[in-house]
Amino acid sequence: xxxFSIFYYLLLSVIYILAIPYLIFKSKGSKYKKxxxxxxxxxxxxxxxxxxxxxxxxxxxxxxxxxxxIENYKHSANISVITNTGFDEALSITSNVRxxxxxxxxxxxxxxxxxxxxxxxxxxxMLFLFAKKKGAKTFLINARxxxxxxxxxKMFSFFYRKIFKNIDKVFAQSDVDKKRLEELGASNVxxxxxxxLAQLPTKKxxxxxxxxxxxxxxxxxxxxxxxILNSYKKQQGKLVIVPRHPERFHKVDLLINEYxxxxxxxxxxxxxxxxxxxxxxxxxxxxxxxxxxxxxxxVVLGGAFEKIGGHNPIEPAFFSCKIISGKNIFNQKSLFxxxxxxxxxxxxxxxxxxxxxxxxxxxxxxxxGSMEPIIKEINKxx
Length: 382
Known about the structure:
- The chain has helices at 3-26, 35-41, 60-65, 67-70, 84-91, 106-109, 125-133, 147-155, 157-164, 175-183, 224-231, 249-259, 289-293, 314-318, 333-336, 350-355, 372-379; strands at residues 53-56, 77-81, 97-99, 115-119, 137-143, 169-172, 189-191, 214-220, 238-243, 267-269, 280-282, 298-301, 322-326, 339-340, 342-345, 364-365.
- The radius of gyration is 22 Å and the shape is globular.
- A seven-stranded parallel sheet has the order 3-2-1-4-5-6-7, with helices on both faces.
- It is built from 17 helices and 16 strands.
- The chain is an alpha/beta fold.
- Helix 11 runs parallel beside helix 12 (249-259).
- It starts with a helix and ends with a helix.
């Protein structure tokens, strides 16, 4: 190991020791009772078998996006993730799923793999260093650097140069991303578009469409449900609210019940009655958002009315929904660039846009990406 690697490892070790009490405390909560022990204490988190094809992604969205890629190598695929939802999604592909351990464990946890394929911004120094040391070819796919994060990347460019030294090839989303990645030390960069567009969204269920306009508030976060409710009128149509995180279902339920007091507005939770007959419906069930998009007229896309970074507009655009979003789309700008006819608005404009639904244009997909260059590259090393 280089002097930098030793210093980096020692620094992480000190941080880890200091964080142990906090990690133990957080692991008692239901959200983290599996993830924290697995990632930070290697509980039920054994090494992969050797000589597999290792895919790493962060969360459910990224794992779902590379599912078509992984399925080309299903019998030898290993998948590591960061989040609970990513873990559950990966299990739908293979049983060879692990939480990626904290970096100080990686030198001992990683064993020889044929290829390591890492999705988007999961730039862990020890991950690439030791995967390569153990014999894997290393690829970063769907790489991009957003306008907002570009400055912070450049500020720590010395660190990213060390990471990119251990990445054999980078598949970037755009020419702008390629230029920025090369400035940070990336080499062998190929532009192939956004692979999230390589496979079109699909439905699982054919849900019955209710009469009238259906407005879906999708992947909403704290404060966004209140904004949407306060902008909503019964005459605009039925309102479906789908919070991003399931642990917030109860809180949003309380918020809606408070909102409808003394109003002639009906409401129910989807888990109790699986239809869209009420004026407001809280979807407290995972995995059916695409099915709801398929019957929606308008999608108010969450994550951008607060400074979250926005959420994926491709799915509602595929189903020809009218898309309204806040302006904080800094994590999704490349995906919004792949569609036309969407509305990025200020928070206080939402009521006016909902009142004017009939005059809004439906979103249309305009660009695509391809996984074929990635498949070709992986196959070279098998």
